[in-house]
Amino acid sequence: ASVFAVRIRRPDRRSSPPSAMPAQMPTADQRRRIVIVGAGITGLAAALRVAELDPSADLVVLESSDRVGGVLRTEQSDGFLIEHSADNFITDQPGVLDFCRRVGLESQLLPTRATQRRAFIAHRGRLEPVPEGFLLMAPAGLGSIWHTRLLSLRGKLRLAAERLVPSRPAYDPVTEPHLEESLAQFATRRLGREAFAHLVQPLVSGIYSADPEQLSVAATLPRFLDMERRYGSLTAAMRAKARASDAGSRGAATDSGARYSLFMAPRLGMNQLTEAAASRLPPGALRPGSRVLSVDKQEDGWRLVVDGQPDPIIADGLILAAPAGVSASLLRPTDAALAGAIDSIPLGGCSVVCLGFRRAALKQPPEGFGFVVPAVENSPILAASYSSEKFSGRADDEHFLVRVFVGGAGKEHLAALSDDELAALAVEGMRVWLGMEEPPVLRRVARWHGAMPQYHLGHLALVQRIEDLVARHASLAVAGNAYRGVGIPQCIQSGEAAAEQVLGAASRIP
User: Fold this and answer.
1) Does the pLDDT of residue 256 top 90, yes or no?
2) Burial annotation 380-398 (CB, 10 A radius, 16+ → b, else e)
3) Run of H or E including 497
4) How far is CA 310 from CA 305, 306, 307, in A?
5) Taking each helix axis from N to C terminus, what angle separates 222-231 and 183-191, rounded to the nearest 10 degrees?
């Protein structure tokens, strides 16, 4: 067990819906075997849901690597707690908090530090604060807009006129994909080209590592479409929400760049979340180091061949919670159309360079939680996140830990650089933007090129087609960040929905 394993109680099965429980306990030869491919957060969420809904199921979780957690990986070294990929999750959806409660982790969640919950944007050699209350592409008010140095007077006037921009007629992105707007088109139409280039583009790219000119706004940030349709403008929507907020939630409206008050992280890092989930599974269910070589449809289920295992695994229900490309490869012999649809989801990503510095090397204490860099700055750096400022326990009092994102859409060539070269770019960025002259005392490079699904125009129609094709196969489900959300809450929801879907189908297999 790793240093992040925690001792927790077995789950309370009484929290599962009674209607989902089997009418009577099956005999040994009637037990349903549910196989899950992939032990990232999606696969673990699916496995936990299977175990909750049908404790008698023969649950098998196959993971090709020697560890659980997928891309989530936490490392402790020399007093630093280093996250190699995601380092937090947003709690605006109740499912993720319920999941943490069910795995016994609720008391271990840390909020972001209450002070300086804001972000900065690189602009002409300086770091300028995101205007107070500006959340991704919606201004809470115009007061802070007038004082920002990120926009010219003309840009400010155009953004102020957002309330005068007529709403676009509603459309269905599934049945009318030809009417879809890209995120760039939507933001430019409502806020103007300058506000898009200097505010929206860097904030969005810092989340998706993608090109907003190609991203579907309906697939990535649908709440802004809803704000336009319900209130006529984003500014009016934000003001209406502020008026409706109570005193306790109004503080979140002052966050800039992102809703930092809603973000949380496990005290010991993201591995604490995945290992807590793994510890709740039945003994022997997890099988790390088990690479699936092939999957074949059988009359009564699925046949999986696993590397190094002499006998195939026969499953009543199958959940593919692996990366989209892996799922497509495994499904191709059974359903080429389904495999092709999954494989057509484009992939992107970037590198994450974690740097630890002596705090004494900082010319002044860092402000906010980090900064993003607009494409117009022509920098190899996408963003920098101050890990030690966001959450406690990420570095001791004498050190500063920052995660620098290098590459992204339009800078794919940087993936060919060596670790030393990527680290040098990150260090140079810290020198330019934070004035760091000393070399770091710690560095780690994590490469995630080709690991981030890109929700381009037409994505929702494509996902609907994938789901329709999956529905042709009884007891099959696909899940993960490639379909209906890239965040941890969405991955958990995807895994749980896949478990419920497959259990319902498997129960109907003769």
Assistant:
1) no
2) bbbbbbbbbbbbeebbeee
3) helix 488-506
4) 8, 8, 8
5) 40
Q: Which amino acid is at 313?
A: I
Q: What is the 3-state secondary structure (H, E, C) of 299-317?
A: CCEEEEEECCCCCCEEECE
State the Cα–Cα distance between residues 420 and 325, nearest whole angstrom: 29
Is 290 buried (19+), middle (13-18) or exposed (0-12) by CB count in 10 A? Answer: buried
CB neighbour burial string for 236-272, b if at least 16 within 10 angstroms, e if fewer: bbbbebeeeeeeeeeebbebbbbbbbbbbbbebbbbb
Phi, psi (rounded to 5 degrees) for 351 = -105, 145
388 vs 369: CA distance, rounded Å: 9
Residue 182 token pair: 């890209």
For residue 333, the cross-strand partners are: none
* DSSP letter (8 states) at residue 113: P
Q: What is the pLDDT of residue 257?
A: 55
How many CB atoms sit inside 10 A of residue 212's CB? 26
Q: How far apart are CA 244 and CA 145, in angstroms?
A: 22
Q: Give the pLDDT band (50/70/90) at residue 6.
A: very low
Q: What is the DSSP letter of 296?
A: E
pLDDT digits (tens, 9 = 90+) for 32-44: 999 999 999 999 9
- Is-contact 345 459, C-beta < 8 A? yes
How far, in Å, CA of 399 to CA of 362, rounded?
10
Q: Do residues 500 and 21 lie in contact, with contact meaning Cβ atoms separated by under 8 Å?
A: no
Give Cα 252 distance to the centre of its chain. Answer: 21
| N residues, the chain | 510
- Which residues are CB-neighbours of 442 under 8 A, at least 6 positions away? 77, 78, 80, 82, 354, 355, 356, 401
Q: Is 461 helix (H, G, I), strand (E, B) or coil?
A: helix
356: which strand partners? 401, 442
Q: pLDDT by residue (tens digit) across 466-494?
A: 999 999 998 999 999 999 999 999 999 99
283-325 tens-digit pLDDT: 999 999 999 999 999 988 999 999 999 999 999 999 999 999 9
Vertex 251: Cα angle to 248 and 255 (nearest 5): 150
Both ends of the chain: CA-CA distance in Å? 39
Mapped to the 3 state alphabet, what secondary structure does 206-247 carry? HHHCCCCCCEEHHHHCHHHHHHHHHHCCHHHHHHHHHHHCCC
29/223 Cα distance (integer angstroms): 48
Handedness of CA 17, 20, 25, 28 (dihedral sign): negative
CB atoms inside a 10 Å sphere around CB 132:
18
Category of 406 on φ-ψ map: left (φ > 0), alpha (ψ -120 to 50) or beta: beta
Answer for the pair 48, 274: CB distance below 8 angstroms, yes or no: no
Res. 21: pLDDT tops 90? no
